[in-house]
Design a protein that fits this description.
coiled coil, alpha+beta, Alpha-Beta Plaits, two-stranded antiparallel sheet, 17% strand, 89 residues, 3 helices
């Protein structure tokens, strides 16, 4: 991965997820935002070993929003259990 993404600038870190639900996902962190933009522009749809890359910018607001939704769902589940509310409609 360093060979492919390193062509566009200095890389600070690459993190590859190995969990079943995120298999095939990686985070590439560049030292310079302009290098990250160049990589996104040039590597979108790039074919590696028969798989096409989908290159996106990290969006912390979306991650935070998703975490908040998960927290709300957990709280709702606990309240339903506490007050004996079933999920049956």
């Amino acid at each position: 991965m360093y060979d492919i993404f390193g062509k566009y600038g200095s890389i600070r870190q690459i993190h590859v997820d190995t969990a079943n639900d995120t298999h095939g996902t990686a985070f590439v962190i560049y030292k310079d935002i302009f290098d990250a933009k160049a990589a996104c522009d040039h590597l979108q749809g790039f074919n590696i070993l028969g798989r096409y890359l989908i290159v996106l910018y990290y969006q912390p607001n979306k991650v935070t929003k998703k975490m908040n939704i998960q927290k709300k769902e957990e709280e709702l589940k606990e309240l339903k259990s506490k007050y004996g509310v079933s999920n049956d409609d």
